[in-house]
Design goal:
By secondary structure, the chain is mainly α. It has 4 helices and no strands. The protein is globular and about 40 Å long.
Length: 85
Amino acid sequence: MNELDAWLAAAGRRAGVDPADIPTRLVLDLARDVAHGVVRPGAPVTAYLLGVAVGRGADPAELAARLSELAVSWSPGEGAEPPIP
């Protein structure tokens, strides 16, 4: 077990969440896209946003894909979301 897996197992127990229910790669990929395409502090906040939306019923893979697409296409200083296709 690597350190991330150990952390998620311990944190999951504290939060009452089965670590198997955490799409780790999906969250890490989204965080990478936001950190590199938008702004580094946006990565953990966007991961939280994803979690809130999933808790409200959003599909995690679909929403992560949409958010990653937005982050990759983001222009510095854009300040406004491009139109939703």
